[in-house]
Automatic annotation (TrEMBL):
Region annotated Disordered, chain positions: 23-180
Protein name: CsbD-like domain-containing protein
Biased composition (Polar residues): 23-33, 76-85
Species classification: Eukaryota, Fungi, Dikarya, Ascomycota, Pezizomycotina
Chain ranges of the CsbD-like domain: 74-122
Similarity section: Belongs to the UPF0337 (CsbD) family.
Biased composition (Basic and acidic residues): 35-46, 153-180
Amino acid sequence: MSDNNTSTLKSYVDSATGTIQSAIGNLTGNTGDQAKGETRQDKADAEYQASHATAKLPGATISGSGAATRDDPNRTEGSWNQTVGSAKETVGGLLGNESLKASGRQQNLEGQEQEAKGQLHDFGSGAANRAQGAVGSAVSGLTGDKSGQAHYEQMRAEGKTQQRGAEHDIQKQGEAQREL
């Protein structure tokens, strides 16, 4: 794999190889092998981090590889409904308007469900595109179809970006829930 085609699997393999090489160096007293193993582990950790790097923008995700995807509209609309619902709930509480407060709470909950639906769609769709792209790229590579291979590599990269974007938001929400 090239340096701009980071892979979680490759990082796991490199980390395991580095661990073994470092352990052998440690057992044999060969500090050179031990240092090379530790360096390989550090490189694997950096590759793992790059494989998971994403930049979230409102309504879109950009990966470290440069692939960009749009979020499912339910994610954006759900987030908006949560914000508006929370505002209604707060204003209702401040004014003592139980109807507005309840309406805001309901809109917030519906927004959470809507956003989760969009995240699930993006995660599943991303995983499917990623798998189809990987298989298509391998088949195209075997048949010598360079344009097909490029097409499927792009599909895999976009699927990975879509999947990582959903993972990013899900993880962020989990952290926010733990803080409450």
